[in-house]
Every structure is written in structure tokens, then in C-alpha cells.
Amino acid sequence: MANSTPLVESVSSARQSPLWWADVDLTKPDRPPLLTDLAVDVAIVGGGFSGLWSAYYLKKHDPKLEIAILEAGFVGFGASGRNGGWCSSLFPASWSKLASRSSESSALTMARLMRETVDVVGRFATEHQLDIDWQKGGTVLVAHDQLQLERAREHVESEHQWGNDAMRLLSSGELQKVCHTRGLGATFDPSCAVIQPAKLVAGLARIVENMGVRIFEKTRVNELLPKQGSTATAVVGGLAVRAPVILRATESYSSLLPKAKREIVPVYSLMIATEPLSKESWQNIGLTDRTTFADYGNLVIYGQRTADDRIAFGGRGAPYHFGSSISAKHDQDLTVHRSLATTLGHWFPDVMKSRVEYRWGGPVGIPRDWSAAVRYDQQTGLGSVGGYVGDGVGTSNLAGRTFADLVVGNNSELTAMPWVNQPLHKWEVEPFRWLGVNAAITAVQAADWFESRTGRDAPWAPVLSKLTGD
User: Fold this and answer.
1) At 245, is the secondary structure helix, strand, or coil?
2) What distance in Å separates the CA atoms of residue 264 and residue 252, rounded to the nearest whole number?
3) Does residue 431 have a cis peptide bond before it, meaning omega lies within 30 degrees of 0?
4) How many CB atoms lie within 10 A of CB 279?
5) Beta partners for residue 143, in sequence order
6) Which of 65, 70, 155, 371 could bond to 93 as cystine, CB 3.0-4.6 Å?
7) Do the beta carbons of residue 192 and residue 87 sit within 8 Å?
8) What are residue 182's phi and psi, to 5 degrees?
9) How confident is the model at residue 469, as a pLDDT?
10) Percent of the chain at pLDDT above 70?
11) Domains of the chain in sequence order
């Protein structure tokens, strides 16, 4: 195997399951499925962060609300239990894009709310005594070459324009104080924390159950029907759940619902986790404050130092599967997992002699305009939250607060934000969707190859920007 190291060689024998699930058995307690028709005030489809946060804030508004969560697998089965553990202020669309939809003032407020949301989640964990391995060490984005360094400078200027004055440019020497990796410089943003996501989703589920929310697992919703009379309907096999308000909080799994199939595409993001590394290795790596790390390449990568001194590292690169297919077999791609191990070794050469102990993956939801949204139509009784493009740990909290305000009629700062009730853009029909998405993935990978060898922007980069709507 070319460029083989113990790190890369160990990938094939790594445990094929999320690292986070080793600490937390998300299948416990074994919650029952729905067995009879049900009538409630609010039905929520999806037992991940979005659905749980929405239930929590609805109950905070009105403790008397009868709320049921309908989950096809188990709580945290999807992205909420598989992600990279970044509780960040990242939002999939640019602030300038949001401003063009509303106003500069609204976009500035949205950017501030996203930064504040990081601390909202941290305070929630403290208030409820949840040990979620929280540490707010910020995030560092590394510039590996001159082209990426220019992107870093532009990024800092843009963030300052949108109110994030705390973001700063690091010199190569300053970067080394954060993490010991090759780079001409970097940016540092303090508005990011690391968490163990399975601990948060499990704890949040316990909290809402203690508030009186009922959670039904192994309960797959087949269809959502708008109001007839006073209630909308969630169809579960031969059963019906009726409620004046039904929220779809299913992120990439929304593509499994016939009427939502073209609203979002599931694109797989894969991860690896090393064995716990020695103190000597960490002296050579840095990340003392568990600062999250990524770079200014075109293909998304992301990493964190876990509380038990592993590196959890992930990225895109897996193909989109025809027909928006979601399957457990797509969680594993040995070629992509080995590529992640190779990339991690380039970042931190000291890790090359270590082993990968876990490898896993899961789909992230990408809307056609690459912009997350919160929607609620009082006339139909149907709402939806999501479209996070992988930035959902923090954003889902803000979405839950916003949806709760919309339902109870609280005209707040949150409900005036530019992501509320934005027009829906649908993806192309197959096979054009498959051709377009996979062409974009290939183009992103090719752009990194071209730029690393020429020091120039890939000529097709403007086309990629158009695909994401920016």
C-alpha cells in the first residue's frame, strides 16, 4: 500500500462504529414503539438534537403542552450521535447571503446569535449537570500555503465585518502555540467548543422525558399530512398521530419521506478516531485547550482532541448515492477512511505510528440553497427545521428556540431572523441530481490537487460557489 503507515494500515481492522457510542449506549433505555393512534398538542418527527431542543423549549414556554417525539431508530441514531463534536458558531450560508435575503442588520444579529448559542449550550449542560466533555477552546483553521493564507486573511476581514471581532489571524509562530502542524498561518475563533455528542443527546432526551415529553423509538413516520380541521397527521404504518402542530426534524432522513425527497440530499461524512495517544505524542501535537482544527482547503475536514486523549477526525469525499439512498453500508468506505488517516498523518506526523480504533460515517443534510432554515405554517400545522450541512450541533439549539417561539406566537428577535420561513428550493430530479452532486464532490477534490501544485485558484472554483448559492 502506497504511503502506508501503522495509522493507515490499522484502518481496515478498526471497529466499525462511532467512537461516541462506546461511552454511551444510546439504545438504553429501550423506549417502546408507538402501538396505538395518538393525539397530542405537538408531534415531533426525529429524536436528534433538533427535535429534542424543540421539545425542550416548547415545554419551557408551556409546561402543559402534550408533546410526543417519533423516532425511527433510537435517540441519537443519526447525525446527532455521529458528528465531529464541534459546538460552533458556523452556519452553512454566508452572512452576506443572509443579508441579501433580508438586511445587513438581520444578518449581523443572526451572526451574533450563532456565537451566543455556543455558550447557551454550555450553560445548559452546566445547569443540568450534564457531563458532555465540554471545553471551549475555540477553533483554528490552518493555511497550508500562500493561497490558503490569503483566504484566511479574507475570512478574518469578513468575520470582522459581521461583528466577530474576536476572530484573529495567527502567524506561523502563533499557530505553533496552538497546534504543532505545518502551516504559514491560521485563523483563531474562540466561539467553538468540543463536546461528546452522544452524551449530550442522551442527556437531553432524559431531561425532556422528565418534563413529560413522550419518546417513541422504532417508530417510522411514512407521511406527513396537513391539517384537516384542527389537526395535522403523521402516518406511522397503519397508525395515525394527530396534532395541531407537527415538526419534521429529520435532517438528511427527510429524503426518505416521499413529499420531501427533493428538499434535501444526504451526503456522507466519514470519521476515524485514534487510540488514546501518549503524553509524549501530545507534547508534539499541542491542542492543549482541545481547540478544534480544520484548514482552508476546499474539501471539508474537521478534528478534535477528545477528553480521553484521542483524535477524532473526519471529512467529506464519499460519493452521493443515487436516489438519495441512505444505508448502513454507506457508513463505511475503506478508501475514504484510509485517506482520512493519511491526511491526519500529514497534519501530525507523530500520529503515524498510532492506530485507528474506530471508523464510522453518516449522512449530512444539504438543501438546494445550502442554507439551514426554520419553517412553520400555522394553516397546515406543519413545520421543519434543518439543512445544517454538517453544522448542526450549535445551530440545532437556535433552531429549537426559534421554532418554539413561532409555535407559541412569541414575536421575538429569533423569529425575525432571515432563515425563518425562507422559500424552499428543490433539488433536481435523478439522474441529474446524482450527476451534479458527484461532479461537485470530484471538482472540490480536484481543486485541492490543482491548487497544491500550482499555487493558483482552480479555474472551476467560481462554478463551485454558484452551486452553493454564494
Assistant:
1) strand
2) 6
3) yes
4) 7
5) 185
6) 371
7) yes
8) -70, 130
9) 54
10) 98
11) 25-90+198-263+370-416 (3.50.50.60)
